[in-house]
Amino acid sequence: MSEPNIYQPFLMRIDKITEEAPLVKTFKLVFVNDEEGKKFQFKAGQFGEYSVFGEGECTLCIASPPTRPGYIECTFRQAGRVTGALAGKEEGEIIGFRGPYGNTFPLEQWQGKNLLFIAGGIALPPLRCVIWNALDLRDRFKEITVIYGARSVADLVYKQELEEWAKRGDLKILTTVDPGGETPDWKGEIGFVPAVLEKADPICENTVALVCGPPIMIKLTLPVLAKLGFSPENTFTTLENRMKCGIGKCGHCMVGKYFVCKDGPVFTLAQLNQLPPEY
Amino acid sequence: MEELRKKARELLTSGAVKVIIGYGPGSGKRVRAVFVRKPEQADLLICDDRCLQNLAVYLTKPEVKALGKAAVVARLPTLRAILQLAAENQLTDGQVVALGISPEGKMTELSQFKAIEEFLAGFSFELSAEEKATLEKLDQMTPEQRWQFWQEQFAKCVRCYGCRASCPLCYCEKCLAECNQPQWIPAASHQIGNLDWHIIRAMHLANRCVNCGDCSRACPVGIPLHLLNQKLAEEVFKQFGARSGMKAAQEYALCNWKLEDRENFIK
Amino acid sequence: MIIEKKLLKQDSVEKLFAKLKADGRRILAPKAQGDEIFFEQVASASEMAKDYIQTTLSPKGAVFPRVEALFRYQMEGKDVKIENNSEPQPTVIFGLRPCDAASFAILNSVFSWDYQDSQFKSRLAQTAAITVSCSRADEYCFCTSVGGSPGDTKGSDILLTRIGSGDYLAEILTEKGKAMVTLAPELFAEAPSEDKEKYLAKVPVKFDLKKLTEKLPEAFNNNELWMEQSLRCLGCGACAFVCPACVCFDIQDESKRESGVRLRCWDSCGFSLFTAHTSGHNPRPVQSQRWRQRVMHKFSYFNDRQKYLGCVGCGRCSRKCPADMNLLEHLKAIAEAR
After folding, report:
1. Are strands A114-120 and A207-212 parallel, antiparallel or unpaired?
2. Chains contacting C (3+ CB pairs below 8 angstroms)
3. Which of A16, B118, C26, C244 allows an S-S link to C58, with CB 3.0 to 4.6 Å?
4. Co-location of A64 and A118 in the same domain
């Protein structure tokens, strides 16, 4: 066939596996074919279809930043057939990857602005990509604040990086766990993300807020952001509808006339307010 | 028909039920399921020999349940489906009023499972001569011919699951066909996927199917699926003397073991 | 855009088939199986179904099969080898209706917007359509309400219309059509000066498409409308699978030890699991929302995004619905609602 097969994945070797939390792992993936790896480019916010041959594909964001070429990372919780099979993979094994797909966080437009990241549980990966991207280009942005919460200390992902970020001094980080989820030596906050956000009282002027988390967290966080003065245009999130193709054809991820895989996954709250509630 | 409309009006006016699930005018000469909620709409109801769909399929649908207590226009297979659903703990006594329709078209109000049982006891559920002849024809085929017959039939299947959707006993919220850990049945409509699906579905309906024929009527590509279910129903009857949908509390022949069973493998 | 008009004698169809086959083409034509009619590979024109308004399944499967391999793979130790499909066989679909012929452009609009689906595109490129216009229609037909007609030429390479003598008036419409004529020029005689219109079925326009498309965005929030229309819907996929324009699909892996295949299978937005997340969350948890999606996608979203309607008015969905969901009736109700 004259044109390439858009469903054929890149072959990726699992370079490193990190256990993040119960049932949560991060894979560092390198291209089996160097040439493909050199040509590969993506931007913060994009996602891919990761596959275990014989089991199928699953949709995950690219959790590593585009400022660190040569590899990509994905972080997933073992939940369905494909993530279950992924979890059974070992370092050195080969999986498939199609991407990068979808739109991006408009980082170029955020130069000179403050960035406020708010994440819950397993939804830190899409923001971690942006956080590292911003940290790698630190002088382009003003204040960077990260508010991250999980059910318990064990459920926090990227624990080492959270410590690393806390030590850096060029970003403010607040980690929190739900009441009862703390350990005796826990030094972070205790409480739900919206409450921690309200207490932190970040300034809204010249700031964009990025929110990713379980639906209930997002639902309770958005009113707090509004109260703090964040406009819908400056509030960003990602949608995670079920997808199959990732490239605007299979119809699964449609929300109204929009394809989350093509027109998203990044949406502003202003855009979400215009969409039918089918996400 | 007038009798049915009058009863429907009464039930709605008195508030005894909130909705009558019956047959009303459809496209062209067809009839379709209607959900009558106002007494003045009772005249929509039709009851004639075009009214074949087993309306018990709607009794387990969340959207229909949300309408409130229902009365359902019920021909014999629908009545059997109600009892079978009761036996499987999907319906409770008094939850539904059956407006039983005899083969001659006479209506009887049946508000308790007991009444349905007694009503059904007055009819024979032997297959008709024609149905028997069709099954016999299949039986007389050599295994190779029969395999060929079903392979050709299943080859048409597009996996629309119309058979499952139209079946009052296929009420599982998540069907085995959609289970992918493990993937018991290939999702694709190729030879092995289709064979697996139809064989497994038939097995799941053995001693549960009430012989309404809706699977075959629903099938857009004309697979005579009811023959599989009829065959299994006859086998179960022969082996265990059990017919589905005759009692609101009945044991499932393929799941129960009794001391007096002929098999001795467990003794 | 007619290149030329010719006459194809009825007994020349068999000869044309022979020439097409000799050229290495597979011929798909309507063939009866019991009461149903399917497009199947035929060896001779005599195998074809004689009289039909519409086939059971559309010819969509010729370009978008209900199951197809996207690629095959082989595990070799820790390595994986991927093997792509070979070029599809040149195919002629004979005896499809003008509405079906019009559906190829709709499918193509999805497979070739943005990312280019090479597999679909090469199948389409290798497929030629010899359409037979409709001399009969039934109450489910509504091609004329969605921009088609019983003798419409859109999407066909050759359109045949049966005239009084029983022979076919052949309109050669595309280069592909011309290439087929070139295989057997002796079969195509000079066309009589007959107007095909008088041999065509009469399909009255049944609703105002402009009104419908204008009203749909607002109708989206009319929950009662969708609920009332879809109460009897059983949630099967029959409508989507008989539809020539439904294009939603699923991707599934199948494997045997070290080798396997990634498959694309037809899917339907009417299935409750179509949108269900692994977590259990479902953005369209009830059937009325799924019915709304079907209507909105075909008549509003498609229009906006692909610049096509997602419907050709063939009526198959309504003929085949086990619950008698009549699309035309429901569209009329929306278009005429105040």
Report:
1. parallel
2. A, B
3. C244
4. no
pLDDT interval class at B23 (50, 70, 90): very high
In a domain, A261, yes or no: no
CATH number (domain holding residue A61): 2.40.30.10
CB of C244 within 8 A of CB of C93? no
User: What gap in Å lies between CA C200 and CA C202, rounded to an integer?
Assistant: 6
Q: Report the amino acid identity of residue C162.
A: R
Q: Tell if the CB–CB gap between A80 and B181 is shorter than 8 Å.
A: yes
**Do A63 and A20 meet the contact criterion of CB atoms below 8 Å apart?**
no
Find where tokens 């493998």 sit.
B265
Residue A276 domain flag: no
Q: How far apart are CA A123 and CA B144, in angstroms?
A: 56
Handedness of CA B126, B130, B133, B135 (dihedral sign): negative
ipTM over 0.85: yes
Domain identity same for A222 and A184: yes
Residue-level pLDDT at A51? 97
What is residue C51's three-state secondary structure? coil
Angstroms from B260 CA to nearest CA on chain C: 42
Question: Please, which residues 103-122 of chain C have a Cβ atom closer than 8 Å to chain B?
Answer: none
For residue A6, list chain C residues with Cβ-Cβ distance below 8 A.
115-118
Residue A124 forms part of a structural domain: yes
> Cα–Cα distance between C151 and C161 in angstroms, integer?
8
- At position C54, the amino acid (one-letter code) is Q
Residue recorded with tokens 């029983």: C166
Chains touching A by CB (3 or more pairs below 8 Å) = B, C
Could you tell me the residue range of the domain that residue A82 belongs to?
10-101
Count of C-beta atoms within a 10 Å radius of residue B155: 16
Say whether both A93 and A187 belong to one domain: no
Query: In this structure, are A131 and A213 located in the same domain?
Result: yes
Beta-bridge partner residues of B70: B19, B96
Nearest to A49 by CA among A193, A265, A254: A265
pLDDT (tens digit per residue) in B111-150:
999 999 999 999 999 999 999 999 999 999 999 999 999 9
Does residue A94 sit in the same domain as residue A118?
Answer: no
**Into how many domains does chain A fold?**
2
- What is the domain-level CATH number for residue A151? 3.40.50.80
In angstroms, the Cα distances linking C140 to A209, B53, B81, C104, C208 are 53, 21, 32, 21, 16
User: pLDDT tier at A83 (50, 70, 90 boundaries)?
Assistant: very high
Residue ranges of the domains in chain C? 4-65+86-199, 209-336
Place of tokens 């035309």: C328
| B15: phi then psi, degrees, rounded to nearest 5 | 80, 10
For residue A273, give how far its alpha carbon lies from the nearest alpha carbon of chain C (Å): 14
